[in-house]
Design a protein that fits this description.
With 305 residues, this protein is of the alpha/beta class. The protein folds into two domains: 216 residues, Ribokinase (UDP-N-acetylmuramoyl-L-alanine:D-glutamate ligase), CATH 3.40.1190.20; 83 residues, UDP-N-acetylmuramoyl-L-alanine:D-glutamate ligase (3-Layer(aba) Sandwich). 33% of the residues lie in helices and 23% in strands. The strands form three sheets. It has an eight-stranded mixed beta sheet with strand order 4-1-9-10-11-12-13-14, with helices on both faces. Helix 4 links the parallel strand 10 and strand 11. Helix 1 crosses helix 7, helix 7 packs antiparallel against helix 8 and helix 8 crosses helix 9. It is globular, with a radius of gyration of 18 Å.
């Protein structure tokens, strides 16, 4: 396994037309989840990527596994819970931006806990996000075990802060996410969420907040990305892009960066590929877009700055 992603995957429903849920006559169904989005993007790039989590023994859980397997994501070891449902959520388009309504309390994934990956072979990269510890106390203990306790010895730990205010209050989230982000080998965080969580105004403020993260990637929306590796600081501006829907862009960026890391690319190359995949996600109503071909990917990673 090159990259193993752990988290909750859900079925998502959205209006087929650009209208609010309140007035929509028809909905389309798909699957979504930050970690499974990353796994799918990497698998489409040819990486041996896996996803681990729990789904309910219901049509939604089977749909999640069908879609992941159809994308060549390794789902061996995914647990099916006969007593808890698969989580679902709804997208609600409106002029002020898309709102999201979650129905995931008591889901199968929320029952994950320490030892969930016992016996698993360590991948090159283990990718998690700050969504999972918000699901339950047992999920929080599992993420602590993997990120801080390094239960899969030998794996590079990648952690996307991914703060979701709808899932837990700021006073609980801020210290826990700081602890996890500071303990990871590779941490992704948006400058906007860092400001909300820790009052950071600049990328350098975030570095001061998370000084021990081996590689720290600070994303500043459409402006660009700053990457800190030890004492080195790299910056990559984002190209202007028409935004159809922002959901999934952060996951696409993470997948591009992780792919570059697997291939030994420079931080600049990793960020360039992250930008390219994020731009694709921004220009689709789904969470993901098809990645560029192998030759284009290679040229992006190897481009001289």
């Amino acid at each position: 396994m090159e990259v193993l992603c752990l988290g909750e995957s859900m079925v998502v429903f959205a209006p087929t037309a650009t209208t609010s849920l309140r007035h929509a006559a028809n909905l389309r169904a798909g699957i979504a989840g930050a970690e499974s989005n990353v796994a799918i993007s990497l698998a489409l790039l040819g990486v041996h990527a896996g996803w681990r989590g729990k789904v309910g023994d219901d049509p939604f859980g089977r749909r999640v596994l069908d879609v992941l397997r159809a994308s060549d994501v390794d789902c061996d070891g995914v647990e099916v819970d006969p007593d808890r449902p698969t989580g679902v959520y709804f997208k609600d388009p409106n002029p002020e931006g898309t709102r999201v309504h979650y129905y995931r309390a008591g889901s199968a994934a929320s029952a994950m806990g320490p030892g969930h990956l016992d016996g698993a072979e360590a991948p090159r990269i283990l990718h998690l996000s700050g969504i999972t510890p918000a699901l339950s106390d047992s999920c929080a203990a599992l993420v602590d075990e993997l990120v801080v306790g390094r239960a899969l010895a030998g794996a590079t730990v990648s952690f996307d802060v991914n703060y979701r205010p709808a899932l837990w209050p700021l006073d609980r989230a801020a210290p826990r996410l700081a602890r996890l982000g500071d303990a990871a080998d590779l941490t992704f965080v948006g400058l906007d969420e860092a400001e909300t969580l820790w009052g950071c105004k600049t990328a350098d403020d975030v570095r001061s907040e998370l000084p021990n993260a081996g590689t720290l990637v600070v994303k500043d929306g459409g402006e660009g990305v700053t990457c800190f590796e030890g004492e080195e600081r790299h910056y990559s501006p984002a190209d202007p892009v028409e935004i159809i829907e922002p959901v999934g862009a952060g996951d696409a960026f993470a997948a591009g960066f992780l792919y570059g890391r697997l291939k030994g690319a420079s931080p600049d190359g990793c960020m360039r590929l992250g930008h390219r995949l994020a731009a694709g996600a921004l220009q689709t109503t789904g969470d993901l877009a098809a990645p560029p071909g192998p030759q284009t990917v290679r040229s992006i990673l190897e481009q001289q700055t």
